[in-house]
Design brief:
2 domains, Rossmann fold, 10% strand, elongated, single chain, 5-stranded parallel sheet, alpha/beta, 58% helix
Length: 258
């Protein structure tokens, strides 16, 4: 391995490990994936030197194969990230839009209150509801395996108690378990509550920026017209979530879901 590639691999390893440790400090075990990728990059340097010294022919084959895999993965991930970014910027939703907030898990400390990411989504939704006094809101999220209450219940409680939103303006969708069912069941709730006609199907879709692309896709499939309203995210969590979302986009395109 040439010195320049050794430096690149070493730096990549350090960066991946750094951004993997940040979510781990918050109890987000998904950070282990970034740590593992970082460790592979770091181990690749001494491993390549060892293999090249002992089995030079094998090293040449491995170099071509690994280089091709990394290049292909980078291209696919880059395309997926461009798609994600296409929905990252906020769009001004029509005045009659219903605010729809997607769940993001409850706190791992008590399994009762919104996680940091979910709190940021709810804060964004509350700001929008304060701007539009006649707007109503759907909080969407079912109950996870270790969660003591449905996410929608915790979300409504947060908006009412922490943000002072009138509970009469909040509708709960508490049966969903992923992004697709978030929007499917939210659309169903809007129809049952008679809000589909008054809103024209327009929704201000509040979720994290990295999540807007897939969320908007499933909203359109559910018969809604989404307008992105991305919530901020702790900067140290962005690499992990962007990687996860890029993988999800690639997988769902591969399976024909998107």
């Amino acid at each position: 391995m040439k010195p320049i590639f050794m430096i690149i691999f070493a730096l990549a390893g350090v960066v991946f490990i750094y951004y993997g440790l940040m979510p781990l400090r918050l109890g987000i075990t998904m950070g282990l994936i970034l740590v593992a990728i970082g460790a592979l990059f770091l181990l690749a340097v001494p491993a390549s030197l060892f293999v090249n010294a002992r089995w030079p022919e094998l090293y040449r084959v491995l170099r071509i194969v690994c280089g091709s895999v990394i290049a292909f993965g980078a291209i696919v991930a880059g395309i997926a990230c461009l798609q994600i970014y296409s929905r990252y910027n906020a769009e001004e939703p029509p005045e009659n839009s219903v605010v729809v907030v997607l769940g993001a898990g409850l706190s791992r400390i008590d399994n009762l209150t919104p996680s940091l990411t979910l709190s940021q989504r709810l804060d964004t939704a509350a700001d929008l509801l304060d701007e539009r006094e006649n707007a109503v809101c759907v909080v969407s999220g079912g109950q996870g395996e270790k969660e003591l209450v449905p996410e929608a219940e915790a979300m409504k409680k947060y908006l009412v108690q922490e943000k002072g939103i009138d509970p009469g303006r909040i509708y709960m969708e508490d049966q969903s378990h992923d992004t697709e069912t978030n929007l499917m069941y939210s659309a169903q709730l809007l129809r049952e509550a008679g809000l589909m006609e008054s809103s024209g199907g327009n929704i201000a879709l509040v979720t994290s920026g990295f999540h807007e692309f897939r969320a908007c896709h499933f909203a359109i499939v559910a018969g809604l017209t989404p307008y992105s309203r991305p919530a901020p995210l702790l900067i140290g969590l962005n690499p992990m979530y962007w990687l996860r979302e890029a993988l999800a986009v690639v997988l769902e395109v591969w399976l024909g879901i998107m």
